[in-house]
Specification:
This protein has 10 helices and 6 strands. It is α+β, with helices and mostly antiparallel strands and 275 residues long. The two termini are 29 Å apart.
Length: 275
Amino acid sequence: MIQDLVQHIDRLIQQRPAAKTALTPFRELALLMVQVDPQAKPVELEKEVMDIKQQEGFPLFSKEDLPLDFDAATGLLRKFLEHLGATDRDDREGLKKALKKAHDTDEWSRNLFKTILKQDEKALSLIAKEVDLDPKVIQFLGQVALTPSIHALRDALSANIDTEGWDYGYCPLCGSQPDMAYFAKTGRRYLHCELCGEEWAFSRIRCPFCDNQDQETLGYFEAEEEEGFRVYFCRECMRYLKTIDKKAFEEVAPLKLENLATIHLDLLANENNFK
C-alpha cells in the first residue's frame, strides 16, 4: 500500500544506514503520493478472453494500453516538480521548466507518461532535452507519478490474474519485465514486475529474460556481510536479477523500496558486465 511506504522507508534507513542516500529523496515523493486517490477505470474483461490470454501467454494489457487515471498522475507529477524545483538541486531550473510545461497543457504530461510506458528512449530523450533534464530523472518522476494509478488498477484486477499458473518471465498484468525477485519462506521463487508491482511464481533454475535453463551458465553472487541478498545472473543473455530470501528477514519492505535500497548490488553486477 502507498500509505505504508514512508513507514517502510524509515525502518530501512534505521536498519541499513547506507541506504539513506537512495531512499531519502524517494521518501519526499512518497509523502506526496499518499495525498493522491486515483480511480481505477471500470474495465470489463470477458472470462473467455482472459482464459485464452492466460493459456496463450498474453498479459491482460500491453503497457501502452493500460487504462490508467492519467489526470491523477498529472496532478502528482506537478506536485513532484513543484517540490523538487524549490530545493537546492543542481537541476532545479530544469524542474521548473518541466513544471511550466506540465501546467501549460495536460498533453505534455500525458505524452511523457505514454512515452515511458512505450519505453521509447529516443522520444524520452527529446522530452528531457526540451526542459534541460537528465532523461533518467524525468523518467523516474513520471513513473513514480504513475505508480498510485497503476496500483489502483492492479488491485482492482487482482482477482482476475492467476499468478500461480503464469509460467512466463514477464508480468501477467502488463507484460513488463521483472526488476527483482524473492524466495518465499516455502522456498518458491517469485518475480516482481518493474512497472505495476505484480508478483508471480517462477521456476528457480531458469532465466526470466531469455528462458535459459542451463545450470552451467546460470549462477549467483552475494554481497559480503549481507545475508538474504543474492544477485542471480545468466551468462547467455548477461542479465541479472536481485533476489531476496524472505527466510532471512522478519519483515521485508515492498520490493520497489528494496530495489532502491540495494543499488550497490546493481553496481556490483555492472562491474561484472551484467546488465
